[in-house]
Amino acid sequence: MRHPDILTGIVTxxxxxxxxxxxxxMITWIVNVLELLHEKQxxxxxxxxxxx
Length: 52
What we know:
By secondary structure, the protein is mainly α. It has helices at 4-16, 21-51.
């Protein structure tokens, strides 16, 4: 229950309602993409700090 995807899905579903499950899924995917981009940036900055 503490995973960000589950929390995002629950909060989005409660705010948009169960009839808008397509929007809930779309918002969850967007959050996933943002998390991946954030992780990629964090790894790249760690690599740069290791090199210098």
